[in-house]
Amino acid sequence: MKAGFFYEHVINKQPNSGNSPGVLIPSSSAANHTGNNYADFLLGRLGSYTEQTKNLINDEAYNITEGFLQDSWKVKPNFTLELGLRLSYIGPWYGRNGAAAAIFDRSRYSNNPADLTKYTGVVDNTIDPGVSPSGTDRPGVTLGPRVGVAYSAFRNTVFRGGYGIFNFHDAQQAGALSNPPRTLNSNINNVTLNEVDARSPELAKTSLYVLKRDDTSLPRTHSWNFTIYQRLPKQIILRISTIFVPSRTMAASLRRSIASLKTTTPCRCCWLVKPAV
After folding, report:
1. Residue 63, SS3?
2. What string of H, E and C letters represents the secondary structure of 5-39?
3. For each of the chain's 277 residues, which pLDDT tens digit applies?
4. Which CA distances in Å does 272 have to 102, 210, 256?
5. The whole model's pTM is what?
């Protein structure tokens, strides 16, 4: 019998690398283009202008706690069975030191144009303590069973096969830590420098990146393998193997418009993180 234990605490702390000073971008396809980018700058004509109100520190972490059991049985002289089980608690990314992952709550969304800059529906732990700093709540222990067999059908031929479930942590979701009203990221096109100064970032369209609160799935791989070993003359061993490793619930982004919620307010885009089947 074999047994083991594993614990891991991972911290990722970095700025979100937004363009807080602002970025001036000329473009030959802009409506106000003179035909020369340098001349566009001198005249204050821009293809686009992008600015983020401030750079937050994406301070987040997660915990993994695992244990496993494994044993081998000689069922017959020519048949061996291996069984194992890995028990895993794979905690979600969660915000630290004031950082928190945001979710979108449809029930809190206001269709009133006066609430446009309140970003109703975007909720995190700093707004509602009832929302986890991770935005989502993971289930308890997940199971990762393993099974392997070895069978000697003939004197010089051995068949081996195995199956196992492997659970993984999802990729970092730092974008969910930087959402209105904590930070705003806006982009305007075909403008002049004077128009940029006259714009109010709080009234500009901004992008959102939020998590699905009810998504508690984890990336998971099912591994199947089968091998034939054949001893040949002169101490040569021929091995033929096949492996099948499908994976499910890998992280993906789904772009949706809040306008799809049957609203009449100006469109604001949001990214909902959901598993890809």
Report:
1. strand
2. EEEEEEEEEEECCCCCCCEEECCCCCCCCCCCHHH
3. 899 999 999 999 888 777 777 888 888 877 778 888 888 888 888 888 888 777 788 889 999 999 999 999 999 999 999 999 999 999 888 988 888 888 888 888 888 888 877 788 888 988 888 888 888 877 688 999 999 999 998 888 999 999 999 998 887 777 788 877 677 777 778 888 888 777 665 555 666 788 888 877 788 899 999 999 999 988 889 999 999 999 887 765 444 444 444 333 333 333 444 444 3
4. 10, 5, 7
5. 0.71
